[in-house]
Amino acid sequence: MSRLVVLISGGGSNLQALIDAAQSGHLPADIAAVISNKKSAYGLERAAAVGIPSIFLSAKGFPDRESYDVALARMVREHRPDLIVLAGFMRILSPAFLDQFPGRVINLHPALPGRFAGTRAIERAFAAFQAGEITASGCMVHYAIPEVDAGPVIEYREVGFEPHDTLDTFAARLHGAEHELIVSATRKALRGMGERE
Ligand code: GAR
To answer: Tens of pLDDT along 102-150?
Structure first.
């Protein structure tokens, strides 16, 4: 069985999708640990509730990004992951982290490839829809590289805007697509590297 380490910063609804898929046999993986850079991340409670080690690693006390990333990589490595999933991890990872796990870090982003990199992507896409600039947005999972929310795409889903959409109705539909996508793309990435029995 493949081992995942999932990094989060918030609610963890995508982590929950991975937990559910692993438990139901739809994802041939064990979630070895969940690590958050935010103490209040509800996803830590979701992990703890099903007996997954859940760890908070604050960036406070580290002098710079690289030293945090080295400590984070050491912590991740302790759990011997085959794949590291960034599921709403809202921190930039430098090469000090990424170079230690080449081809083994994947990131979920709530926009289509090449669009709306960074934070508040759903809000910015919705504003572009309201301005008449786009008719659809979506979500993607890609291999992480030092450039934020960029890198080789594993899978994406397009999510169209509907005439009476509000930010909330659109965001709900987009999150639904993400929950399906994160499982599918994680499965595909594991298959690509040859699952461990
Ligand atoms: C998701 O919408 C994810 O795409 C986004 O954070 C949210 C986490 O939700 N990630 C980014 O914006 C990365 N740039 P969750 O904590 O409920 O899974």
So the answer is: 999 999 999 999 999 999 999 999 999 999 999 999 999 999 999 999 9
Q: What atom of ligand 1 comes closest to residue 175's alpha carbon?
A: 2
Q: Residue 113 Cα, ligand 1 centroid: separation in angstroms?
A: 15
Structure tokens at 193: 């590297």
Give all domains of the chain, ordered by start, each with its CATH number: 2-196 (3.40.50.170)
d(CA 110, CA 119): 9
User: Cα 61 to chain center, whole Å?
Assistant: 25
Q: What are phi and psi of 153, to 5 degrees?
A: -80, 135
**What is the distance between the alpha carbons of residues 43 and 22, in angstroms, rounded to a whole number?**
16
Active site residues: 109
Contact 56, 44 (CB under 8 A): yes
Q: Which amino acid residue places its CA nearest to atom 17 of ligand 1?
A: 13
Q: What is the mean pLDDT of the chain?
A: 97
Q: Is 70 left (phi over 0), alpha (psi -120 to 50) or beta?
A: alpha
Pairs from 160-164 (Cβ < 8 Å, separation ≥ 24): 160/135, 160/136, 161/126, 161/129, 161/134, 161/135, 161/136, 161/137
Q: Considering the entire predicted model, what is its pTM?
A: 0.97
